[in-house]
Design brief:
Blueprint (H helix, E strand, L loop, with lengths): L1 E3 L5 H5 L8 E3 L3 E6 L2 E8 L2 E5 L4 H7 L7 H8 L5 H7 L9 H10 L5 H15 L9 H5 L3 H6 L6 H13 L2 H8 L2 H9 L6 H12 L9 H11 L7 H12 L3 H14 L5
Antiparallel strand pairs: 1-5, 2-3, 3-4, 4-5
Helix pairs in contact: 4-15, 5-9, 5-12, 10-11, 11-12
This protein binds a DNA duplex (13 and 12 nucleotides) through α6, α12 and α13.
Length: 270
DNA sequence: CTCCAGGTCCAGA
DNA sequence: TCTGGACATGGA
């Protein structure tokens, strides 16, 4: 089937480091899973071409296609330094992905690179999930030995993910509590898991829980923000986080996604 | 071989 | 509060 999707950039959305379970093959055709359904998807202008039994409503929700991005563009246009971004990356959207998958994947992301996170994602899916090409449930990870996770390439993050999976599989309500909590409280709850510090916590809350105040500061954002707003002076990640939340408020995380993807793809130089 | 990657944790100032 | 080093692993 095909559905119309205006103001949407599939490639920027799926290649901007929010989610690790999609594979891109020739013709910019992506394969992955959404809400448990296998899906093949590609974009031609304003049309999405989809091969899947996924209900359309779930697709719209996953890519958040009904969101009006004008408030985001207005914030970006207000910034002299960021104006080129809105033009080049227009249609980049934040995905509403599965909270457990976001929590787990960003534990794996620390001091790691996107290629290897994708590799580990596939290893976990192949070895531990009961369903093909789907990230394993917390319980499916919780019952293996730490050694198994190390064999799948997690390295020192193996005990972090294992303990988190064990906790979540026994207390699924904790995900609900994170969702219901205001941002500040949600940070405290997420940061309490092993292997999660301020940066990963913001990623989890932004991508898994739609808390758009979150402003993850990784090495790319650090370099870009230092250059754009602090004359390349050294400044702590916490200061940058506060600066961004004050400046961009409840859409800080959206602005972050544009800066991050722009920096990584060379749209802006860092 | 060395360096780096969507950082976190721990110890010591 | 801030700084320095260790930490697994694979690709460049």
């Amino acid at each position: 089937m095909k559905i119309k999707a205006v103001d949407f950039n599939l490639e920027a959305t799926l290649d901007s480091g929010q989610v690790f379970g999609f594979t891109k093959n020739k013709d910019k055709n992506y394969q992955g899973r959404i809400a448990g359904y296998e899906i093949e998807i590609s974009q031609m202008q304003d049309w999405l071409h989809i091969n899947s039994t996924l209900p359309q409503q779930k697709l719209v929700r996953y890519f958040d296609l009904e969101r009006n991005l004008n408030p985001v563009y207005e914030l970006i246009h207000r910034e002299e330094a960021l104006r080129p971004l809105a033009k080049k990356l227009r249609g980049l959207r934040l995905i509403q992905q599965d909270p457990w998958e976001a929590l787990a994947c960003f534990i794996l992301s620390s001091n790691n690179n996107v290629k290897r996170i994708q590799l580990i994602w596939r290893n976990l899916s192949d070895r531990l999930s009961s369903r093909k090409n789907q990230f394993p449930e917390a319980l499916e990870i919780a019952r293996v030995h730490e050694r198994t996770l190390r064999e799948l390439g997690l390295g020192y993050r193996a005990p972090y993910l294992l303990h988190t999976a064990q906790f979540i599989s026994k207390n699924e309500i904790s995900l609900q509590m994170i969702r219901q909590a205001p941002y500040e409280e949600a940070v405290e709850r997420v940061i309490a898991f092993p292997g999660i510090g301020p940066k990963v916590a913001d990623c989890v809350l932004l991508y898994g829980f739609q808390k758009y105040e979150a402003f993850p500061v990784d090495v790319w954002i650090l370099r870009a923000m230092r250059r754009l707003y602090f004359k390349n002076r050294k400044i702590s990640e916490e200061k940058i986080r506060q600066f961004a939340r004050k400046r961009w408020g409840s859409l800080a995380g959206y602005v972050q996604q544009y800066i991050f993807h722009a920096a990584r793809t060379g749209v802006i130089s860092v």
